[in-house]
Amino acid sequence: MKKRAFNTLMLGVLLLVSQAAVAQSTASAPNSITISGSRFTYDLVRQWIQDFNEENPDAVIQIVPRETPYAEQANLVINAHNLDTLEKRAGYEYIKLGRYVIFPVANERSAVVQLYKNKPIRQKELRNLYFDPIVQKTDDVSSPQKAKKEIVQVYTRERIACANTAFASYYGFKAQDIRGKTIVGEDKHLIYAISKDTAGVTYSIPGILYDLDTRRIKKGITIIKTESIANAIAQQKLELSNLDSLTNYLESNASALDIPITYFHISLKKDTPANSIERKFLQFILTKGQASLHKYGFLSPEEPVRNKSIQQVSF
């Protein structure tokens, strides 16, 4: 048993070393790009890489997760929250690529879902749910006042990351203010956690909430409807169970939403040469690559924002 555990550990170490070596050589090789940053964008980025390689077969583009060695040497870094002054690095420009929304979500059998089955959750109630201390359970959920105090299990990431930062900021808090159980892992692990806990509540993005093949919301979870979403459903403008209906509605009605909607952007050194592979790749993303945003549950940038981004990466 000990030998097997040791072999497993060594295999993990070798994989990390191998990945680091590849990342290091890629970062310094001509016609190559290493990308790091927000994990929940990786499926979309892989699609962009694949499509770009069809037109540029000599380009070598690799994603290196933040936690791995040499991630700091990445040519391009994706962030999916608004960076404050201290987070921005001198000598870099930040190019907006697209937008995403963050929903309050819960296990479909939770008391919270039952409470808001026939009415939307208001902003004050949502703040109480995620940012107020969890109170002790009461067996009487017959009144809204008592039902709001029904024990729920909020799940959030242990690590301060883009989604929890953007979610908390929208409601006037910081990521560390989200109450509840913290888990190690990625944003997608929050959905797994609440799917196994009938009291579970968390926050998430469409690309994680929905099955990207069937375009349907994943089994066992549901979106807690805010007022703007409930109104859209009542007016038959939105089919919440369908990802394509959702992204189309969100993009057309972004200004009327009462949920967090945030840009994700990529950082590029200002002195990156004209006609560099980095600038060509970003030009591709902001033109031909925009067609892939909805496929992965993201939204297009507003047109003036996209035009500015194109100017930033022009060569």
Describe this structure in words.
It contains twelve helices and ten strands. With 315 residues, it is α/β, with parallel strands linked by helices. The protein folds into two domains: 125 residues, D-Maltodextrin-Binding Protein, domain 2 (3-Layer(aba) Sandwich), CATH 3.40.190; 154 residues, D-Maltodextrin-Binding Protein, domain 2 (3-Layer(aba) Sandwich), CATH 3.40.190. The chain has a five-stranded mixed beta sheet. Strands 7-6-8-5-9 form a five-stranded mixed beta sheet, with helices on both faces. Helix 2 links the parallel strand 1 and strand 2. The N terminus is likely disordered.
Low-confidence stretches: 1-27, 134-149
Largest sheet: 5 strands, mixed
Radius of gyration from CA coordinates: 21 Å
> Strand share of the residues?
15-25%
Number of strands: 10
The assigned CATH architecture of the largest domain is: 3-Layer(aba) Sandwich
Class by SSE composition? alpha/beta
Shape: globular
Distance between the termini: 57 Å
Q: Which CATH class of the largest domain is shown?
A: Alpha Beta
Strand order of the largest sheet: 2-1-3-10-4
Give helix % range. 25-40%
> What is the CATH topology of the largest domain?
D-Maltodextrin-Binding Protein, domain 2
SSE order in H/E notation? HEHEEEEHHHEHEHEHEHHEHH
Number of helices: 12
What is the residue-averaged pLDDT?
Answer: 87
Any idea how many domains?
A: 2
Give the SSE map:
Blueprint: H1 2-28, E1 32-37, H2 42-55, E2 60-63, E3 76-79, E4 92-101, E5 103-107, H3 111-115, H4 123-131, H5 144-147, E6 153-157, H6 162-170, E7 181-183, H7 188-195, E8 200-204, H8 206-209, E9 221-223, H9 227-234, H10 243-252, E10 261-269, H11 277-286, H12 303-313
Parallel strand pairs: 1-2, 1-3, 6-7, 6-8
Antiparallel strand pairs: 3-10, 4-10, 5-8, 5-9
